[in-house]
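Re: [ENG-882] Designed sequences occasionally contain unexpected residues at chain ends

Forwarding the minimal case from QA. Structure tokens:
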């Protein structure tokens, strides 16, 4: 691994890794070197979940004890081999980096160099002509309110799973690396983001009506106390969710970790840290694999 300011080469692409021993997670002592190694070791797992989508980076330049900021547009001085796509908005354009099979491992290393710990993506991919496509997956973010934690999220995850199965969708759970659980369902791309957003909203509202003491589907924080928010809104074309296998900028180096339903319902559920990821995948495989059928080459 690199020393201070040393040029490294990954998949035929060069970049300068500065301050590799800088501690980004003081509580665990995790360094930039270790963050880069994590993203290299998990590239084959992360890329199918994030390739072809605009990547919004959340950066902690001074480590997680310092301030953070979101970055959408490509950074000044970015390597010329980083693929980009332009997303057009009504009053402005954003030029995003995009992960792909050819340069993805190197781009992930560049993200680590920038202390871009969290990688956020929408549920749609760019079409070959550069336009945003229809979503190829649906997501629900189960966010526990004050006074409840992961056990309540598990109870709600079971309800969402049952409702999705009734609609013909299997779903993959992901412990978010923060407080809650994300649920993803692969979809066929035949419906627009607006349609999927509407479907997800109706599902969340129906669960709230059936389980008002446990579920809330509105965003007001005052309504969440003692309940779990089923956040359906991240299916909007303009919203993003932290990508499966992304690190999180918490006090410790937790990961948005795809899980099996056996793990979710084990009664011992907790958030997973970067040093645990590869051993888990070697033991029981990639729990996100059911989502990959929706990812086009």
């Amino acid at each position: 691994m690199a020393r201070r300011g040393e040029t490294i080469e990954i998949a035929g692409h060069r970049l300068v890794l500065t301050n590799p021993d800088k501690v980004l997670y003081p509580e665990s002592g995790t360094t930039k070197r270790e963050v880069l190694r994590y993203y290299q070791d998990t590239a084959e797992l992360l890329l199918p979940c994030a390739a072809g989508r605009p990547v919004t980076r959340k950066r902690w330049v001074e480590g997680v004890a310092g301030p953070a900021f979101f970055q959408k547009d490509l950074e000044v001085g970015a390597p010329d081999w980083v693929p980009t796509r332009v997303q057009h908005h009504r009053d402005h354009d954003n030029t995003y980096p995009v992960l792909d099979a050819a340069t993805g491992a190197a781009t992930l290393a560049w993200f680590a160099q920038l202390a871009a710990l969290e990688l956020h993506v929408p549920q749609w991919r760019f079409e070959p002509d550069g336009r945003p496509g229809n979503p190829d997956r649906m997501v629900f973010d189960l966010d526990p309110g004050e006074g409840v934690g992961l056990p309540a999220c598990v109870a709600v995850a079971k309800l969402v799973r049952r409702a999705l199965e009734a609609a013909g969708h299997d779903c993959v759970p992901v412990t978010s690396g923060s407080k809650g659980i994300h649920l993803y369902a692969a979809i066929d791309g035949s419906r627009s983001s607006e349609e999927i957003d509407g479907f997800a909203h109706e599902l969340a509202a129906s669960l709230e009506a059936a389980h008002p003491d446990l579920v809330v589907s509105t965003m007001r924080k005052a309504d969440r106390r003692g309940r779990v928010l089923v956040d359906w809104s991240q299916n909007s074309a303009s919203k993003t969710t932290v990508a499966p296998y992304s690190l999180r900028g918490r006090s410790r180096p937790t990961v948005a970790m795809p899980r099996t339903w056996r793990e979710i319902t084990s009664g011992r559920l907790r958030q997973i840290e970067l040093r645990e990821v590869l051993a888990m995948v070697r033991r029981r495989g990639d729990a996100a694999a059911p989502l990959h059928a929706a990812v086009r080459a």
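QA comment: On inspection the terminal residues look reasonable. Residues 135-294 form a domain with the Alpha-Beta Plaits fold (CATH 3.30.70.3300). Proposing we downgrade this to a documentation issue.
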